[in-house]
Amino acid sequence: MSVNTSASPFKPEHRLARFDDLPAIVDIYNSTVASRQVTADTEPIPVESRLAWFDDHDPARRPLWVMEQDGAILGWLSFSNFYGRPAYSGTAELSIYLHEDARGKGLGRYFLTEAIAHAPKIQVHTLLGFIFGHNAPSLKLFEAFGFDVWANMPRVANLDGIERDLIIVGKRVA
After folding, report:
1. DSSP the chain
2. pLDDT tens column, 57-77
3. pLDDT in tens, 17-30
4. What is the distance between the alpha carbons of residues 32 and 38, in angstroms, rounded to a whole number?
């Protein structure tokens, strides 16, 4: 896949994910596993392991969005429940994953802009990001949007024998 956002009149837009998008969503997720920079999974996951996760993304409360160009999924953003208890219903964790060819082209900024604007419409007042401390591009992206470090969990992940920090960033949006 080749993403051409400069030579064509490509205007980023997203839509709700459909079930038939799930293989592409999982492929994009799996493409990040080897880098040890984005996910705590250490092996690619099967599509079947994401069925319940997909079903948990109710468009009215916790949407899952995809961005598509010429029939190919470029990336996705999910709003996920935080901690799973009713008192936290106004808080959502954001996850953004982009196809390798779509990274560094402003699509993460687009998704984050749209998510911040959409959050109050789904009764979310607080957004969180869970980011490895060595994932400088993601930390920089969230910082540019006014997210602050709310927690630093030192050495809680072990990736190939290397202990890694987990940074939780947060922002009140309503």
Report:
1. ----SSSS-----EEE--GGGHHHHHHHHHTTGGGTSS-S-SS---GGGGHHHHHT--TTTS-EEEEEETTEEEEEEEEEESTTSGGGTTEEEEEEEE-GGGTTSSHHHHHHHHHHHHGGGGT--EEEEEEETT-HHHHHHHHHTT-EEEEEEEEEEEETTEEEEEEEEEEE--
2. 999 999 999 999 999 999 999
3. 999 999 999 999 99
4. 6
Residues 6 or more apart from 148 whose CB is under 8 A from it?
169, 170, 171
Query: Tokens in use for 50?
Result: 């994401």
Name the residue type at position 139.
L
Question: How far apart are the C-alpha atoms of 107 and 34, rounded to whole Å?
Answer: 22
Distance in Å from the first CA to the final CA of the chain: 38
Cα angle 101, 75, 47; round to 5? 110
Is residue 67 within 8 Å of 111, Cβ to Cβ?
yes
Task: Output the pTM of the full model.
Answer: 0.92
Model confidence pLDDT, tens digit, residues 80-117: 999 989 999 999 999 999 999 999 999 999 999 999 99
